[in-house]
User: Fold these one by one.
Assistant:
Number 1:
Amino acid sequence: MAKTTISKERERMLKSAIAYLRIKGYHEIKAPFKEFPAPQSVFRKASEAGFVPDMIAEKDFGTFIFECLDEESLENWDERLPKWKLFDEYTDRKMGKLYFIAYSDEADTVTERLKELDMNAKILRIKR
């Protein structure tokens, strides 16, 4: 599978998150970089189209999904909700959690928006 092209901002966010995840003991990291396997699609049923997360990792027998919240994601929040809800359901089934990677200065706004939704997602804060 060919690697997808990502923006410099997303690349920086993901690389910061990967460094943190390695320290915290996550393994089997799948990310859109040549040194990692590509993340696979996540779907409810094999007959449905799925979505590819920004990054997947494993820890303590659970599967965790990480999604970057860059400026574009924050602007198109409602369009991305079906994808994020699917990721949240998937990680619940796989004894993991959905994490949003967000800049520290935007994390409080994201937290407030997440409270409005029926999701168990958490935020991974990174510095700009």
Note: Helices lie at 8-23, 71-75, 77-93, 104-115.
Number 2:
Amino acid sequence: MKRRNFLQGAVLTAPLLSSGSAFARGLALKETKLALGYDNFAVRAMKWKAPELIDYAAKLKCDTLFITDFGPLEKMDDGYLGDLRKKAADVGVKILLGSWSICPTSKKFRDTWGTAEEHLQLGIRAAKALGSPAFRVVLGAREDRNSEGGIEARIVDTVKVLKGSRTRCLDSGIKIAMENHAGDMHSLELSGLIEAAGPDFVGANFDSGNAVWTMEDPVQALENLGKYVITTSLRDSAVWESENGVSVQWTAMGDGDTDLKTFFKRFAELCPKVAVNIETISGFNHELKVKNDGFWKAWPKGKPKGYDKFLALAQKGKPRRAGKVDQREDIERSIAYCKSELGLGQR
């Protein structure tokens, strides 16, 4: 088995249906459709537990449910987790599991689940019990770029934690999906982390919205990470030039400036067995103050590779107003758009 297939061999495939948009029929991999689901963070305001999240996935006719934190799990024992796995399977939904920071020196790390190593080991066990082939974690957030030693020091610390669980991962068949999270790592920095830790058991959870926070066109970021992607948390983004640089607003799918047709054509080519999980987070603007010298202290090596493509994306965008959003409306509209306009989903 090729290494990329090993890393990505996590998700269901099914015959490509004859119906759907012209774009759907034109996808590179004509014999299969990409699995489609949602990330529970998209409906965080509902405060649903896992059974309710499963029911909602079934209602939306999703193939997958990505539970990216332990909060919805009422217990962590194998019996309870096994029951959730069965409940999901009975309605045609595959559960994927994740949690938060495993970098002990990150500003975002919390010891709720013990040490970084203990947190990771718990997640590996829980993922296996749920039937999730991967366990998603993060390093931290953009604040870590200004910590002592910068993001490179935090990457070194994270790699050390990951290597400590290599044997456990390989024995259990669970891979670790490191996310580009909230402006912490550029896609090329994440790919470097994966190579340093070991791509035989570490891959990427690709977040297209977070890529814009590290000054990347999501399509280019996908090109950089595609061969490592094993899970996803995807959303659309509006990007435009603003007073101090470039502003970003995350949006429902189809409402932003990401070239989604190009994105998913390449996605189908680069990681055809990986589920598309939508994580809508909308309602606020975030300005990247690239015109201010202070902004670049977090980027001591200068403008990242691909910055020109990011600026080109911003130059085409138009300002958006921030405002209150309905999380359920956002995710339901996004799932419907992915099915009808992009040809995603296996049912």
Note: The first strand starts at residue 36 and ends at 39.
